[in-house]
Amino acid sequence: MPILLHKNYLGTEAHMIISGDQVRWTSSIDSSEDFVLGYEGMPNSLEPLLRLYGIEIPDFVPEKFRKSFKELNGPSLIPWRFVLPKEVFKKNFKEYVTDLAKIEGLFAESKYPSFFVDSNSLFPMLQRAKVDKVLLQKLVRANDSHVLRHMLSGSDDSLLNVPLYDRVSTKTGRLTIKEGPQVLTLKKEFRSIFAPKKANSKLFEIDFVSLEPRVALNFANVHASNDVYLSFLETTGVKVSRDTAKLAVLCSLYGAGNARLNKLLATESVKMNARQLVRAVSNYFKLSDLKHYLFQQAKEGMIQNYFGRPIEVDNVRESILINNYLQSTAADVAIAGFSHFVKKFSKKCHPLFVIHDALIIDVDNEHLEEIKRYVYKGYHVSGLGNFPLKIKEFSHHE
Questions:
Q1: pTM of the model
Q2: pLDDT tens string 281-302
Q3: Rounded to the nearest 10 degrees, how much is the dihedral formed by the CA atoms of 299, 304, 305, 311?
């Protein structure tokens, strides 16, 4: 994808597009065709990808010049080609364009940058959520919650600002919120503050079912029902409860300790200890294949998730490699899946915010059945398989 340098960054009347060794000018931005540099917040902004890949590019404007204009409260649009000494601008800009051309070439060799930009289309489609301001004020008075206080101060006419999400601050791509209501850390018992915008609509939560274990199963090409834990029990013939099987899966996938699992097994009077059960889970998920795949990548100091996202390797313990791979792939599956959903139903529901593996929507009753039919089919990732979804009303009740 070509790289577009925003006019505000350049101090020019038009945007510059760099593609290989070709340079051209344009007055508009196509959000699907170009990486954009110098205007963060767009789905195709280049800055997050530069941070993800650890790429630093020197500014063609020396820092002392930018700092001087900032201290002087100069205009926001500075025509640098006239401000900088001619030779300085010409030399620095030439080097700058050369660096960007190399970055374009690097990203062309990786599938992840274009995937990142495409799935980023989810976030601009999110809309402001409505809150019950009277209830919110009551909860703020009764609870020492900075999340609630921030929401109350940030609400305007009972509408919250849309959260500004960040996909690159964590190693695996698990979402954080840079600005806006901290819905990711809001306690479940406070969800009742959210309200539908119309009398004939309701809030629903669409989320992925056992997403990270499902990534492992799909990688291994193991078929399972929507309930991966019951599928494990039915396939292997292991005689433990579903709750014990679920804990064993977590221990196996993430390297958790076996003490709690042994206690559960003791209450069920089964002739199997935690180590044996975890081994059965590992065999069912074919984790040896995933371990081998990741160890081969880790030799280079880096692994990639299914979509090609780079994950720096600090520790080659197999549990950490598996954890990073599954969490990162799952995070991208969720964002891509919700992006696909919102594009399809943009005129039939109001997407409000994302809570990791869940998308919260405001939907009219007349479109609910159509959305449910879509959800029950799951989300399909080419080459990786199907990921089951579920839908339920969004509230503090479980």
A1: 0.91
A2: 999 999 999 999 999 999 888 9
A3: 90
